[in-house]
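This entry is set out below.
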Amino acid sequence: MLLRKRAWDIMREDFLVVEEVASMAEVITKLRESISKHADNDFAIVVKEGGQLAGVITARDMLRAIEDCVLRDDVVRNAEETDWDRAFAKACTLCCHRRVKDIMERKPPTVRPNDPVLLVLNSLVDSKVRWAVVEEGGKPIGVVVINDLFNEISREMVSSF
């Protein structure tokens, strides 16, 4: 039965999408909301104008960018204890104006809707990420998350015990 399953059978059709020109502030707000609904929704699909897949931005990418902004700012690194909060707020404000296209992953793992589940598994294992974008005609139509894939495969395994 598992060999007949395809990416479209297990993909999530409800996923966060942001435009590549979005600011970090916009994406942070949307990611926080997405994560509050489901803990493994810690990424957003990034699209170009017209809906074409441009990349993916994850909570980890956002934290790296924030770290880079804060640590790069000499004012924050050299701030006295009393100035630190103000210096940190300034660095964060500057960071929030960065565009997603400057920090996103440009080549996310992708699968086609008709790809067998085992090919999806291979894609996730090879890419070492927890999700793969289901892409058709250059546009994202869904996302396969590793937890959903694990549940599908393990359900088949348990039923064969």
About this structure: Strands lie at 17-19, 43-47, 53-58, 110-111, 131-136, 139-145.
